[in-house]
TrEMBL record:
Keyword Transmembrane found: yes
Transmembrane segments: 6-25, 32-49
Keyword hit for Membrane: yes
Superkingdom, taxonomy of origin: Bacteria
Organism name: Aquamicrobium terrae
Keywords in alphabetical order: Membrane, Transmembrane, Transmembrane helix
Designated name of the protein: Membrane protein YGL010W
Length: 55
């Protein structure tokens, strides 16, 4: 029973953290070009690792 309480508290804390993060990101001015470049760079790195088998 205590495990369910601990898991419920962890899920609740994660939910609150997610809501606060969303609220903060909505108020920020985000450079989406930089974010897209960063995500593309990481995806390209994983793709090249998968294709070449190195890294």
């Amino acid at each position: 029973m205590i495990r369910f309480v601990i898991i419920a508290l962890i899920v609740l804390a994660a939910w609150v953290l997610l809501l606060n993060t969303i609220r903060v990101f909505r108020g920020m001015k985000i450079d989406w070009t930089g974010v897209a470049f960063m995500i593309g760079f990481v995806v390209l790195a994983f793709y090249l690792r998968h294709v070449s088998g190195m890294g």
